[in-house]
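Please check this protein record:
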Amino acid sequence: MKIIIILNGVSKKKKKFYYSILPVLSQKFSIEVLETQFANHAYQLAVEAVTRKANIIIAAGGDGTLNQVLNGMMSVTNVNSSPTLGLIPLGSGNDFANTANLTSDPHALLELLTKNQPMPTDIGKVICRNSQLQEITHYFINVCSLGMGPATVQRMEKSPSWLGADLKYLLSIVQTFFTHKPEVIGLQTPTWNWKGKARVVAIANGQSFGNKIYIAPDAQSDDGVFSTFIASNVPLFKFLLYLQQLKSKKKITDNQIIYYNTTKVELSSTKIVMLETEGELIGLLPATIEMLPGQIRFFRK
């Protein structure tokens, strides 16, 4: 059994991986580690791992690393030939790891690999447009969002690197909170339509995003449906209070906050609106987001 781990090369927990996690896993399995060297390198390494016939590919990093590995795998495989996907959560937020009940404890990881009983897991397929208005396809396992999420990511990308990832995120989200204007979004599902100004629209397979903001606390990654969250034109400081409530895994009762389950969403706007998944800008509206039930095999509890 060939196991390849794709490690985020700039993870602050890289030493923990090499000194505490890898030695435990290597006691029972032969493991090859591929370490990322530049942005989006995990995508390329995942393609390489598939072409080299890896049976198991494990992303060692945060939600962004997992997202890149998933997309690399999906670019060269199908449901019948895809390797099993795993995750060692070494990021700052680890949102999907929380949904999957995963930790970085090496002995728990070893137990999952030893049992070798991956579970069918849903993913989302996004068809949207790039900056040249060409149609592109992207996949996600956790959350795809528009509104304040992409605006924060865009600010982070423009921030100086010397700030460091944590400080860049903090400053970007504060700036976005006070400057981002709600965007007019059209949302269409097979059974329900909505149009209006929105601060956040999130299409969730996992329970949380943005470092444990639980926009879908009841979501399950194997139930074949998305949990859609819409924060419409909520007053700014009221929304700030609601964010604290979301952090506590509590649903909000307000007619300006909408929860809805669906298998497919079509999003549109008359203006330029960005989409993001797991902290990465992926494209522009219009977009179609479709549920792919049980598309991958994933190690989770």
